[in-house]
Description:
single chain; alpha+beta; five-stranded mixed beta sheet; five-stranded antiparallel beta sheet; 4 helices; 17% strand; elongated
Amino acid sequence: MRIQQILAVALLGTGLASVPRLSAAQSVVQNVRPNRNTQFLFRNGAVVQRLGNQNTPLKQNVVLPNGTKINVRSGIVELPTGKITSLHEGDYVNAEGGIVFGSPASAATARGDGGVPADAKFDSYVHVGSADAPGLPAQSDEREQLLMRKIELLNRKISLLTQTHTNPPDTEAVDRQLQELDEQLKTSLKASPAPAVVK
């Protein structure tokens, strides 16, 4: 009987001694400096690093430069504010630490709304400038088309300038296109009749 007690205590002691090692192994993190196109995608029950079409399995938890922590096995994300959320299939964390939801149900779960069906889909949207706006004529004149093109180019330039990366973005091509567009707008303004002024 005494030997059984000693054996039980020894086994219990061995088990308890291994607990800190297990938790330490789970807390191993990898500080990463992702490029601006890197995504940490929750896929098939784990987080993978996606760059373009290539998915790379991750072996260690990830800490992004902004302090966002990602558990690669469970998909639990801790934001720098302390808020904790879980990724679901198709969700990902971008390089800046922002969460992009793969489905309306996933987004609803993150905000605590359980009333969205699991098979719900996001509404399709129309890219700006590709559909007629209500109240406007179906055919845009040349000047409107040029202005819409200018808006698209300015949005592209803003997108380039706001992306996180170490080297400044090359906006020369966009700037050149904007200059050409401004010249076209000036010539179209000269060619169009002056608006009537009511006094």
